[in-house]
Amino acid sequence: MIQLPCPWCGPRNVSEFRYAGEVTPRPQPATATPEQWRRYLYVRRNPRGWTEENWYHSAGCRQFFKLRRDTDSNAVEEPR
Amino acid sequence: MTQQRTQPAVGSIGRMRLAPQQGEVIDRARTLPFTWNGSSFTAHPGDTIVSALAAAGERVFSRSFKYHRPRGLLTASFHDPGCMMQVGDEPNVRGAHRLVESGMDVSSQNTWPSLRFDVKGINRLAGRFLPAGFYYKTFIKPERLWPTYEKVLQRFVHAGEISPDTPHSYYDKRYAHPDVLVTGGGPAGMTAALAAARAGASVLLVDEEHQLGGHLRWADPAAAAELVARVSGQDGIEVLTNSVVLGRYDENWIAVVQRDLPDIPERLIKARARSLVVAPGLIERPYVFAGNDTPGVMLSTAVRRLINLHAVKPGERAVVLTANPSGDAAIEDLQRAGVRIAHIADACAGADVARVHGRRGVRAVELADGRKIEADLFVTATGWTAPTALLNMAGDVPVYSAKAARFLPGGATAENVFAAGGIAGDGTLDELLAHADAVGAEAARRAATHRHRQLAATPTSEPPSAGSPREEPVEIPELPVHEHPELFRGSTHGMVDFSEDVSSKDLHVAVREGYDSAELAKRYTTATMGPLQGKLETINAIATVAEATGRTVAETGTTTWRPMYAPVTLGALAGRIFEPVRYSPMQPWHESHGATPLVAGQWIRPDDYGDPAAEVRAVRDGVGIIDVTPIGKLDLRGPDIPKLLNLLYVNKWSKLGIGRVRYGVMCADDGVVMDDGVTGRLGEEHYLMSTTSSGAAAVWEWVENWLQTEHPDWQVHVTPVTTAYASINVAGPRSRELVGRLVEGVDLAPDEFGYMQVRTGRIAGVDDCVLWRIGFTGELSYELHVPTAYGLHVWETLMEHGADLGVTPFGVEAQRILRLEKGHLIVGQDTDGLTKGYSAGLDWAIKLDKDDFVGKPELAWQAETGGGSRLVGLQPVDGQVVPPEASQILTAGGGIAGRVTSSRMSPTLGRSICLGQLDAALAEPGTELTVHLPDGNDIRARVTEHLAHVDPEGKRQEITGPVPAARPCATPVARSPIAAGGRSGEAAPAAGTVTIADRSPLTKIGIRAPHDGTMAADLGARFGRTTRDPSGNLVIGSGPGEWLVLGAPDARLLSVLRERAERSGEFATVVDLTHGRALIRLSGQRCAELLAKVCGIDFAGEFTPNGAAFRSSVAKLVTDIVRDDKAGVPSYLLHCERSSGQYLFDALLDAGAEFDIEIDGSPSREEI
Ligand SMILES: [Zn+2]
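ok -> structure tokens follow
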């Protein structure tokens, strides 16, 4: 089990966190086309390699934070 | 060999037992009786089952898996393939490892009707019918014979008998956080552990055997004893013997199983090691030749173990095939033990063996040069296998060295993984120890660097002390690699995989049939796939495939070692079963009044009290009460709440007045309905939001997500208060009459407190209650939210004062019927993961003219295109038929047009009623449709005009009547969420034990403010730490910008803190959580050990010193933990949401059993 570096709590087992998806900016709802909106809803890069993710420390500080992670090696960039 | 023993062996000296040996591990002063296949034997403490049997002259311990060949002792270790046995009702016991206990009932496996006369031995003659790949080739056709094949195959499965009557055992689990974990307690492992510990590391030293020492135990017992003494004299090393590392996972997450503890069959240890030192030594490799599995063929290490550890003479007359010093040393041991050495075959000089003769035991050894030498023992020393499993799991790819005739580490392991000892290379003992010493020191250094970084990132720790860890690495010397002849197979074919009965011939056949890679041949023949998982056989299997394909061993490669390295019971993997449950404070009442329990998520709720239809009628005709405590409740404070509500709900919230309640629906950004509930405005900047019971946690996270990530500038604080309130819905035409009798400070007159309004007041003498007038059941009803400790008091008072009105408790089932009669949807029941807002009958609520709300674009497009199904009311034409939920609704052409989402017999209408999802084209009221039932029958049903089957006009909400005067009622009684049970004396328990105490009555105040502002400075505790204020209250930095203050029960604490929050001039809010949290104090020297069984946090020293505060998972429950020592004795406060308090208390009691935990019933409940 990998550990994630919570910016508030320090390193914790990943089982304490909930994955909240790839960082995907929400388009302007007033102007977004269905195509853009559905890309935001459903399409993910899911790369092999570095990616930016949202995580929620649900069994800890209960903060959402962004994390850069290499999906291949599980290496993470230390937050901030 | 003939069976000489007809009388049971009696007395302490078996006929093969030797005089005392220097390194022996048996206690000759005592004997233990046990039975083997029904006959009596004796052993000494320290004997394994097999050593005791061998001492008595036994040589055959099992029959082989496929051909039922007699098998004896080969390795005399845990991994001896011929020594799997049944002990009592435990199958597959490793007989050459398991120590004899008095009275053990041991029997052989795979033998029927007896070890001697094995009927299935006939397979040996029928060997040509069980060829390579026989699983794939045989028993295929005809299919009608499969049941027969199954019965045949079952008889041939290895493994013993499992009794379904075996009682449940206590399997244990704990976490560990060593700086350095050393696996392998031989000379290298011990030396590395000593070096690491001397460098200040905490070390966990794990060894598979019953004693530390490794091969020195038989090679040099004095040297072994000296090292063992140094280990036990060194601080900072925890030794686990009879334990094995099962696997290494990401970031040195290491699974260790600890065996045969008192009262615990196995314990799983989940260790997070900062460094891992792999020092398992080498496993001696068998040699492949005809008859190599005959009892009496042994490895040199087996002979040395038997003689030196167990003082057992392995035979009378021996032939030895040796290629290395281990074989030479075995010869010396044999001579000392009085075994005649009939011949020494020097494999380095080209000597080889052709076959052994004998069936139930070796009678003669035939050498490659044709000489035939009589002997009952044939010893081989032909090479080693490096058990590189853990290095593999750490990313290394071991490299085959033809020079060493074994695999060596490839040097590509993860940063904090090291190899030491024989697995790393060769050399003299001194060279290996010097290498291990350096490895241990470097492992400790890297661990210290890692620890330093972790401490700096952990808010619970004090700032790291000055002096960062040593930077220059310890130089690790290179180990030499000695030359060893490549010996795998002689001139004849023999067993490669002893546990699966796969011979070198089978592997050749597999290659001929095209399975010419190691991975394919392995799967086809099942070589290396038996209980030993390749530990003995993998090199020989690769070498045989290499030979058959004409490639080298290096070209053929190795198979990948995967976890688990050693067998582990399912019980150990399951560990303690942690399944949090939640109870409302009224649950004891429900249980004592015949409620049928309903498991709803973690909640245990009353489904009914015997007759749900009668409960429905009582509500429609008079008044009923239901416990709805699990309804999610979020306390919202701040000026920007309307913005938040407008964003998250599809309807409008800007104009909700104080005292008003509104129903709201939340959709996700894909427009799919995710939750619903009512939200009421209690004050200018204070709202209470309710959610569905099952959606409570998700909605809280949802709200936090939008606030934290999209709108961090909005001033809203959200506090879950689901279990801060016990919730009771009082429903029915006479509910006003009942509630009126108990309420003070709220005017219930219909025009004063109308439908969809909220009030706060006193109920049954309890202050700070919230009442909302809403109507899920369709009746006049009041939902009472009462501070939880008084929940049972208010419930009982309602029952008492409503007796003359016929007040009836009703359960979840009655509520489901009532709401279905009223046509109210349940999210998740009448909607699913694809149901968008307009498909849920919510057209009236969705306001597309709002600027933005979550899900708006998708809902706008749905409104435009009209896509998706519609929620409709349905009534079967035959009102006596209740179509089961999920029955399909069909089009005229027989296609699927929808489904029934809810259905019940309505006690009010005396007919069946439904809700369903239906294609919009067929959703017109009055449409008659076919409903296809799961039993295959079709019925007709009609779409109704309204979703509501009862009172579509909502007239029952308008029932008026006199409001009675409040009556005096019993003094409120506050109750704790925890029933301590067991010992709960007045006196404080003796010092030294671990004690547990319920401290739930303490006042608990939650505060939210900027984490770095005036209020934070005023409170004086940063996130992760605690402080005491001048009044002795404990101020806990429980989250970023979040505090909890604990104090003696005193109403003034809340107002004092509110004043301070106001004075700060910041956006700071204060919420009373006294009723919302259960609080437990755990005290005693061994608390940290107890908590390590239920929580993965490092409780030792620097990470959680006194004053640490953090949140983590305890027994799978999110729990706040505060270290708050008392008079130098470690002490922890644990708090969780209140309804789980009993669960947490019980889980801690369970974990504390081995520490003799006592319940502290002393009257210090009101101190903090
Ligand atoms: Zn955190």
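The helical segments of chain A are 34-42.
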